[in-house]
Amino acid sequence: MAPGSTQNIVIFGETGVGKSSVINLMAGQQIAHISPDAPRCTLHWTEYQITFENGTRYRVFDTASLEEPRLGTGAYPPTLLNAYNLINNLKEHGGVNLLLFCIRGGRVTATMQSNYRLFFEFFCEERVPLVLVVTNLEREPRMEDWYRRNAGQLEKYNIRSAGHACLTAANLLDGRLRDKYEESRGILRGVVEAHCNAGGWTGGQGWLASFISKLVKFVVGHPKKTDIIGILTKRCGMAKEVAQQVAQRIGEELVT
Ligand SMILES: Nc1nc2c(ncn2[C@@H]2O[C@H](COP(=O)(O)OP(=O)(O)OP(=O)(O)O)[C@@H](O)[C@H]2O)c(=O)[nH]1
Ligand SMILES: [Mg+2]
């Protein structure tokens, strides 16, 4: 990794799974607010900066995920706008180096699978390494055992990761559990350092049209072509002809 460079990490996962707590664990101090946060719509994000003792710097984009396997039609326009703003912001900062997918140690669900697809397949086009961060494991005698028990289930849902960290992100624990919290910091930092891609991914030519058309697959009902052209021109600042071409490429999934 180039000395002095900053790695960009996108963290995602359902509300309350422990994203803010994981950021604080990684930082070694309280920089992110623990819930309840104000409700945010899908792909809205907050940015945090973390520097490890060895000097490596990270910019963490804490993003809001889907709360159900599908998106309501009304949620489609703001999600699209957030995705567009997020990719541009990431581009300005050199692209994404790592995805952290945060889940609570429990059973694997359809919403988890949808979020995995939204961020890894749709948003990052499978071009960014993904690390699974499993929280709430302080009661496990060996936290890593969760992964061994659930690897088959993850496989069944097609959730694939370059690495994983089984941990506890709850900071108000004492005694033996406190030791597990400290152990968790080492596990998390190790996996982040091991899997950050050297080059940031920024999304290629045609990213927007491709993302819009993939996102449609998640929406209940069919978004209107005129609504999409409206967002692209009014909110994303795109020229009308370009927006029309984008909507045209998406084609038959849209209602005219
Ligand atoms: N027992 C236990 N509690 C945890 C763990 N991680 C987080 N929590 C608790 O779960 C609650 C939610 O944690 P947050 O870190 O705010 O979750 P979040 O994903 O950032 O939530 P949103 O920002 O609302 O999406 C808090 O009360 C945390 O203290 C964990 O590993 N174990
Ligand atoms: Mg949070």
UniProtKB/TrEMBL annotation:
It comes from the Eukaryota. It comes from Suillus discolor. This is G domain-containing protein. Residues 9-134 form the G domain. SUPFAM superfamilies: P-loop containing nucleoside triphosphate hydrolases. One of its GO terms (molecular function) is GTP binding.
